Amino acid sequence: MAEKLNITVLGGGSWGIAFAVHLLKCGHNLRLWEFNPDDARMLKTRREHPDKLPGIGIPEGIYITDNLFNTIDGSNILCLVVPSHTVREVCGKLKKAVKHAPIIVNLAKGLEFPSLKRMSEVVFEIMGMDFENRVMTLSGPSHAEEVAREIPTTVTLAGDEIENLEFVQEAFNSTDFRVYTNLDLLGVELAGSLKNIIAIAAGICDGLGFGDNTKGALLTRGLTEITRLGMAMGAQQETFAGLSGIGDLITTCLSRHSRNRLVGEKMGKGMKLDEILRDMKMVAEGVRTTRAAVELADKYHVDMPITMEMYNILFEDKSPLEAVSSLMSRQPKPEVRHG
Predict the structure, then answer these.
(1) Does 159 lie in the same domain as 33?
(2) Which of 72, 174, 304, 339 is the 20 to 30 Å CA partner of 293?
(3) What's the pTM?
């Protein structure tokens, strides 16, 4: 039985709610912070988010508030479950509020633009040296809709110091939520971020009415270019063959729960990006991440043709069919380079 801890989940969206419910079942004391006062009041009153996670009740044992200072006081672990583009702002508020140095577990998947920083880098930059080895990232195939319903899920927890990783691993583990540790924080964060770009592409394939052949090729070649960039930046190749790599890629590209795949599907059917995003209640991280990925590919001189074509579709108004034609008509190459 894991030690009973005081844990604060920062972010009252679908993943924040699902993860808070999971941790309460693990036996911990839970607080849930929602930055929007109106949403916080709604969650306290209804004990459910009807738009983002319908049908999942929030137990009375989870204290809900929009007061950050009260929420984090005395917490052993802070779980950062907010959109990636808000991580810097939330950490700025945290910096002013924390009186000690709890462990921070990031669950956001994305790359900051235009800094090109990973989420752990943003957190550490703001929070400072007191948090050395105390910032980690949880990633892997883990849709909130399934975690909240106790469907068996397995994820990776990445950081720089094995003792802290194992402490959090024990706290988060349950019979339906299995946590592995990984010291390749760079690789895990890159894999979790970049797969969202390929998921948008997978949705475009669905919207265009393509079949299994196309989807299988997309996932395989998508993983190839994600791995190529990761290794150029110093990540371990094995990470991309693991839960945060191919595991999360498969899930996000195939699932009906995937917001990124849904964005792509609607684009494949002819909708414009602005229209799609305006109607969405939740964030599709892959859109912003595509900008950062293209700049990283240029910086590290890595060929990422799928990512580049996704950039052209999302931001240069290139038609999905024209992008597919560009990819399929590229100069023939060997699949594996020898020697």
Answers:
(1) yes
(2) 339
(3) 0.96
CATH number for the domain spanning 19: value is: 3.40.50.720
**How far is Cα 326 from Cα 41, in angstroms, rounded to an integer?**
50
* Chain center to CA of 170: 21
Backbone phi, psi, residue 105, to 5°: -110, 115
pLDDT tens per residue across span 215-248:
999 999 999 999 999 999 999 999 999 999 999 9
In Å, how far are 92, 135, 165 from 132, measured between CA atoms?
17, 7, 13
32 and 59 both lie in a single domain: yes
Residues 160 and 112 occupy one common structural domain = yes
Which residue range is the domain that position 38 belongs to? 6-183
What residues act catalytically? 195
Closest CA to 202 of 288, 112, 286: 286
Distance CA 304, CA 66 (A): 41
Summarised one tens digit per residue, pLDDT across range 141-168 is 999 999 999 999 999 999 999 999 999 9
